[in-house]
Amino acid sequence: MSKQIQVSGLDAYYGSHKAIEDVSMTIEPRSITAFIGPSGCGKSTFLRTLNRMHEVIPGARVEGKVLLDGDDLYAPNVEPVSVRRMIGMVFQRPNPFPTMSIYENVAAGLRLNGRLSKSKLDGIVEESLKGANLWNEVKDRLNKPGAGLSGGQQQRLCIARAIAVKPQVLLMDEPCSALDPISTLAIEDLMAKLKDEYTIVIVTHNMQQAARVSDRTAFFNLAEQGKPGKVIEMDETSRMFTNPTQKATEDYITGRFG
Amino acid sequence: MTTTTGIQHISAGRRFKDLFVKALVYLAFALAVVPLVSVLWLVISNGVARLDLEFLTHSMRGIGARDAGGGAYHAIIGTLEQVLLASVISVPIGLFTAIYLVEYGQGGRLSRAISFFVDVMTGVPSVVAGLFIFAFWILFLGAQFSGWAGALALAILMMPTVVRSAEEMLRLVPNDLREASYALGVSKWRTILKVVLPTAFTGIVTGVMLAVARVAGETAPLLMTVFFTNSINNDPFNGPQMGLPLFVFDQAARPNDTAVDRAWTGALTLILIVMLLNLVARLIAWWRAPARGR
């Protein structure tokens, strides 16, 4: 239950502003791919093009190809909603639905998309919460509001919500940037566990995190403010952090940037 | 006044300014509350005498000019029916308009035009709304005076208030939640129905109640649409009805004390009905409140 993503010649725009230019890469299944780079270089924008969330913003558009196991996500007759059902997303700030309980939050994706029997739903909710390492903490208060959990728990709730719809790929946009180190560790452990089943892509500002969790790393950068972001280098994480081929990558990783 | 560490004390001038501004704030608060309290006091002290079972269960049919007794049952029924019908017309239209403006319009030409006309409608005097329904519904289409005609006029007045308040509330729903829903592969209309509307529900209910409170006290549009009657007419679609504001207007204009007493009690009843509706709305909002532990 995990698919490969192949991107070729992808440009993304906000209105007339080109945010990323000519990105091509292959994201392997059952692995964690990390995107690093300075703020505003288009990492998050690129991540959002992978499940057609970019075009939700008025005026935003994409050119190029994204293939999920060979199927083009941007082919003219593709329904964006079905793409997002296959490629889930976890956001920077935990965003559980405030009107829903913990149980309803996890069940949201399934419930909003159709009917399932109560027992089947119960099973999937339990399985997803266990998958997100949250079950033991919340099993006695599934009917309490999801917004009452701590930030780290909320983020794991959002991960449980994302995996409950059984996506092929999980995109994570700086999932730990609003969390404390202990919650961050919990999420990182969770990612290591989830990569057995999912293709995971993570955007992070934390280079130690990229080095710790990812198998492959892509470094994004932009020539100067206002210019579109590009992929400078992409390689095995171990090689990126020890022996990068590009000077800019080395400067960024060693903190001598700019 | 500086201590050895360089930390400064609050100067006398700043203390004075602080006190002065505080006094101004309290004064403004008192000024705002005085009319409210005095209106309530006046209505309650004058109206409570006739607030009895007869007033709530009888009409004015067969009550002579100098007779005591009689009641506003016909007016209460009329007001409740007219306001309910007006809400049934204006709340769905207003809500759908707000949803279009916030979720679909995206600042396009049509949404700007709608916004402009909603603003214009907010400024329409209530007499004009009544005159419009009178000219269009009763003179042009030849329908008779009825509670329904009154409800149409009230709906015109309610709609912009509902649109504006619902729009405000929908805009307050964080975009994160919409994106979270889209990212689960939920379609846009289901996201609006299941995520956006429930999140904004409490605020929308409050807005609708404000609109209801506004039109429940309207007299002018009723004069030309529901006309007037002293008898009970339970059918809002047939024949003249009464409304509480009309009842107050009519009774207060009569020369006897008994009639003026009835007017005060009518006003008190109107306030009580609006308060009761507000209470119901609060209860609904509390019952649906997101952060309540269940």
UniProtKB/TrEMBL annotation, chain A:
Q: Which GO terms describe its molecular function?
A: ATP binding; ATP hydrolysis activity; phosphate transmembrane transporter activity
Against Gene3D superfamilies, the record matches this protein to: P-loop containing nucleotide triphosphate hydrolases
UniProt keyword annotations, A-Z: ATP-binding, Nucleotide-binding, Translocase, Transport
Query: What is a single cellular component term in the Gene Ontology annotation?
Result: membrane
Q: Does the keyword Nucleotide-binding apply?
A: yes
Domain ABC transporter positions? 5-247
Q: Where is the signal peptide?
A: none
Q: What is the protein's name according to its record?
A: Phosphate transport system ATP-binding protein
Q: Which GO terms describe its biological process?
A: phosphate ion transmembrane transport
Pfam families from the xrefs?
ABC_tran
| Highest taxon above the source species | Bacteria
Automatic annotation (TrEMBL), chain B:
Query: What is the topology of this protein in the membrane according to its UniProt annotation?
Result: Multi-pass membrane protein
Query: Which Pfam families does this one have?
Result: BPD_transp_1
Keyword Transport assigned to the entry: answer is yes
Residues in ABC transmembrane type-1 domain copies: 76-281
Give me the segments passing through the membrane: 23-44, 83-102, 114-139, 145-163, 195-216, 263-285
Q: Where in the cell is it found?
A: Cell membrane
Q: Which InterPro entries would you find in this protein's record?
A: MetI-like, MetI-like_sf, Phosphate_PstA, Phosphate_transprt_permease
Origin, by domain of life?
Bacteria
List the GO cellular component terms.
plasma membrane
Q: What is its main location?
A: membrane
Record-level GO BP terms: phosphate ion transmembrane transport
Listed PROSITE patterns:
ABC_TM1 (PS50928)
Q: Can you provide one Gene Ontology molecular function annotated for this UniProt record?
A: phosphate transmembrane transporter activity
Positions the record marks as coiled coil are none
Provide this UniProt record's keywords sorted from A to Z.
Cell membrane, Membrane, Phosphate transport, Transmembrane, Transmembrane helix, Transport
Protein biosynthesis found in the keyword field: no
**Which family does the entry's similarity section mention?**
Belongs to the binding-protein-dependent transport system permease family. CysTW subfamily.
Q: Which NCBIfam families match?
A: 3a0107s02c
This molecule's function is given as:
Part of the binding-protein-dependent transport system for phosphate; probably responsible for the translocation of the substrate across the membrane.
Q: In its UniProt entry, what is this protein called?
A: Phosphate transport system permease protein PstA
Instruction: Tell me the organism.
Output: Nonomuraea jiangxiensis
